[in-house]
Design a protein that fits this description.
Structural class: alpha/beta
Strand order of the largest sheet: 5-2-1-6-7-8
CATH topology: Rossmann fold
Radius of gyration: 16 Å
Shape: globular
Oligomer: single chain
CATH class: Alpha Beta
Order of helices and strands: EHEEEEHEHEHE
């Protein structure tokens, strides 16, 4: 698909709008599916649109079921630090790992799969959770001349947060589309804390109506 005309420096990053993170999924975020109705009208206005997917192998290190005696939302120590454990979600090739059907995929130029290694989780669209293994997204965007990112998706306090903070660290100008994100909020207050931290680090916040 050819890139659209317009401001080629701007890209839309749609983070993990997948079935397992929407109502009815194994790790459902409240109203996660409603994000699509906000994204669909604005996505065609971007020259570059990237969607990310969690794409985990069975037995992934982030699954509580991979750690005997552990439950979701507990933590374990792993080689790259502390790992928060989750219900089984977004297993490679499963229906739960697919983009939510209400999201119009036609404007998407790249679908980036992350968390594909059994022994390494990935929240950010830019780096795995060891904070050193790149996903390749930075090189892709730089090669297209992108310098400004508009970020939306799931979850505000996990993968959206990590994507935003990493992109700021890499030198991008970042805007969070505030009505096109939803959070896990586990523990309670995590969403507000994440939003405040993103602002403090330099991210702008805007509603989709002002794009």
């Amino acid at each position: 698909m050819s890139l659209r005309s317009g401001d080629s420096t701007k890209a839309l990053i749609i983070v993990d709008l997948q079935n397992d993170f929407c109502p009815g999924g194994s790790l459902a975020v409240e109203e996660g599916d409603r994000i699509a109705q906000v994204i669909n009208p604005v996505a065609p206005d971007f020259a570059v649109v990237v969607a990310t997917k969690d794409w985990h192998p069975a037995g992934h290190i982030s699954f509580a079921s991979s750690h005997p005696g552990k439950k979701p939302f507990e933590t374990v120590a792993v080689s790259y630090g502390e790992q928060l454990l989750w219900p089984v979600h977004c297993v490679q090739g499963s229906a739960g790992a697919e983009l939510h059907p209400s999201l119009d995929a036609n404007p998407i130029h790249l679908i980036l799969h992350k968390g594909t290694r059994i022994d390494l989780d990935s929240y950010s669209a830019f780096f795995e959770n060891d904070q050193s293994t790149p996903t390749g997204l930075d090189g892709y965007l730089r090669g297209l001349g992108v310098s400004r990112l508009y970020v939306c998706g799931i979850a505000t306090d996990v993968c959206v947060y990590s994507t935003v903070t990493d992109s700021l660290r890499l030198g991008y100008e970042v805007t969070v589309i505030e009505d096109a994100v939803r959070g896990v909020d586990q523990p309670a207050g995590s969403v507000l804390k994440a939003l405040d931290t993103m602002r403090t680090h330099g991210a702008a916040m805007t509603p989709s109506s002002e794009l």
